[in-house]
């Protein structure tokens, strides 16, 4: 497969994650689950960007490292998903999101849309 085909496959999962996030912006939905899914969506966007550059993405969840390899500058809001996801994954404590769900969703969608535009023929 070409790099653009591989990146497009990763974006299928990103789109599914984004649909799930959009359907669960209600504060009653556990923030830990919502934020973990947001982190996963962002991670996949970054890995798809790396794949599109015909590189193998590393086996890491470190958003800052992935963003650097992808040549993408993440906002502090998006970078806040990294420590959030680690704490939410391993702690039983209440873990507040790094920001508003809608703002997080919009920023991840913008990165995803930008990547999709690069895939368009």
This entry's quaternary arrangement is single chain
How many helices in DSSP terms? 6
Instruction: Please identify the top-level CATH class.
Output: Mainly Alpha
CATH architecture: Up-down Bundle
Based on helices, strands and strand pairing, what is the structural class? mainly alpha
Shape: globular
Give the helix/strand layout.
Blueprint: H1 3-23, H2 31-52, H3 63-70, H4 76-79, H5 81-90, H6 101-119
Helix pairs in contact: 1-2, 1-6, 2-3, 2-5, 2-6
Task: Describe what this molecule looks like in 3D.
The chain is 69% helix and 0% strand. It is built from six helices and no strands. The protein has helices at 3-23, 31-52, 63-70, 76-79, 81-90, 101-119. It is globular. The mean pLDDT is 96.
Note the main attributes of this structure:
single chain, Four Helix Bundle (Hemerythrin (Met), subunit A), 0% strand, 121 residues
Task: Please outline what is shown here.
Helices cover 69% and strands 0% of the residues. The protein has 6 helices and no strands. The mean pLDDT is 96.
């Amino acid at each position: 497969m070409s790099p653009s085909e591989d990146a497009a496959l990763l974006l299928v999962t990103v789109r599914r994650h984004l649909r799930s996030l959009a359907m669960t912006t209600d504060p009653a939905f556990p923030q830990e689950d919502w934020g973990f899914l947001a982190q996963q969506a962002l991670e996949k966007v970054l890995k798809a960007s790396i794949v599109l550059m015909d590189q193998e993405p590393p086996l890491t969840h470190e958003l800052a490292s992935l963003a650097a390899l992808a040549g993408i500058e993440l906002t502090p809001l998006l970078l806040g998903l990294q420590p959030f996801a680690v704490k939410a994954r391993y702690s039983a404590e209440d873990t507040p999101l790094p920001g508003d769900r809608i703002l997080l969703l919009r920023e991840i969608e913008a990165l995803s849309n930008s990547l999709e535009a690069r895939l368009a023929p």
